[in-house]
Amino acid sequence: MSRYVEMSEPAYEIVSKRIRESYPNSCICWIEENTNADLLVAYENRKQQISTRGNINEVQFFHGTKEDIISKIAMEGFDPAFNRVSAYGKGTYFAKNASYSLNYMKPNKEDISFMFLCDVLLGNSCKGSLNLTIDVTTHDSAVDNTANPTIAVTPYADGAYPRYIIAFHKGAI
């Protein structure tokens, strides 16, 4: 389930501000908060498992996608096997900057594109590389830069929670 976030709500301001940090001319149509108790429990369980190693390192990163995938992700979560390009490793990709996720947003017939703002568990990250299979006995994610990650890859289906769905008029740049 999801609910529309009203423009008067603090969450709308927080999410839109994060988007505009890297995508200043964005034309946001609406923001929805995804409320999926099963996915959230799985995410919290993964966070607990990661915490036993010490470093949770949780961030909010973006994930751009096509409209027909939005509902599937909101209901079932991310499928790391779905990724076809493994520049930093095998898994589901997330970006610190909304502008990076624009490349993965495909507009629908009404010229509306979608992305998620997700809670992502980085845990103990390793430096990503082409086609890397992340060794989950020692690492929880791969990143482009271990000191200041802007791209993160999680090998876990429950390594990210799709918290917000954002709809854009992408062509209104």
List keywords for this structure.
9 strands; 173 residues; globular; Phosphoenolpyruvate Carboxykinase, domain 3; alpha+beta; 24% helix; four-stranded mixed beta sheet; 30% strand
Task: Walk me through the structure.
This protein has 173 residues and is of the alpha+beta class. The protein has a domain at 2-80 and 98-122 and 157-169: Phosphoenolpyruvate Carboxykinase, domain 3 (Alpha-Beta Complex), CATH 3.90.228. It contains 4 helices and 9 strands; from the N terminus they run βαβαβαβαβββββ. It has helices spanning 10-22, 37-51, 67-76, 98-101, and strands spanning 2-4, 28-34, 58-65, 92-95, 112-121, 125-127, 141-143, 151-154, 160-169. The strands form 2 sheets. Strands 1-2-9-5-3 form a 5-stranded antiparallel beta sheet. It has a 4-stranded mixed beta sheet with strand order 4-8-7-6. β7 and β8 (151-154) form a beta hairpin. It is globular, with a radius of gyration of 15 Å. The two termini are 30 Å apart. The model has no long low-confidence stretch (mean pLDDT 93).
